[in-house]
Amino acid sequence: MKEDDMNTRKNESKFWLTLSKDELPINAMGRSGERCLSENQFRPKLLVGELTKVSTWHKQKKLKPTEWRPSADIPVVICGAKISLEKVLLHYDGKAQTAKSIIRFVSIFEEELKYSQITIVSPGFIPKSKIREEASLVRLLSKKSQETSFIKFNFTQIEQFWQYAQQHNFTFLVTPKKYLSSLLHLLGSLHHPKPNSFLKLSIYLS
């Protein structure tokens, strides 16, 4: 590990770890059985929280707000021992910032998404001014993934996305970072009778 990376990690809270995409425990395999990585792939920094630690610490109220509130510009990943982008649930809420965040997500995980099944969740009503943006995102994701579907739900709470993702065996949830606080409270309140099911869903917030 480089010295500047070590210095960065020393300054982190106990809650988050700063990693590049290539340092994530991604279980994403190409058809050849080899890891989907490119030498020239964009390597941004991500703030990563381990799922069981996030749940336990928040449940036991070990965290101060200053410890879990990350920089607004850095995407957050909350995950178990392995990350799979096999089946992605992606939340588009009609906001311009969310559209930019989705495009950024695609740029970070472009190689892994080649083998993904993506389901886009969009509100039942989108202003006419946003229809073109919504259609553009659908085209982008269809081009970058193995399979893309599009559904309309009037979900307004992170609990609804979480429950839908769990019920339909999604492995990766993409949602705006404004839901981070609510998500942490949700994870801290959950009981996990089936830990394997709980751990297989990773969450990306940006």
From TrEMBL:
Taxonomic superkingdom: Bacteria
Record-given protein name: Uncharacterized protein
Phylogenetic lineage: Bacteria, Pseudomonadati, Bacteroidota, Cytophagia, Cytophagales
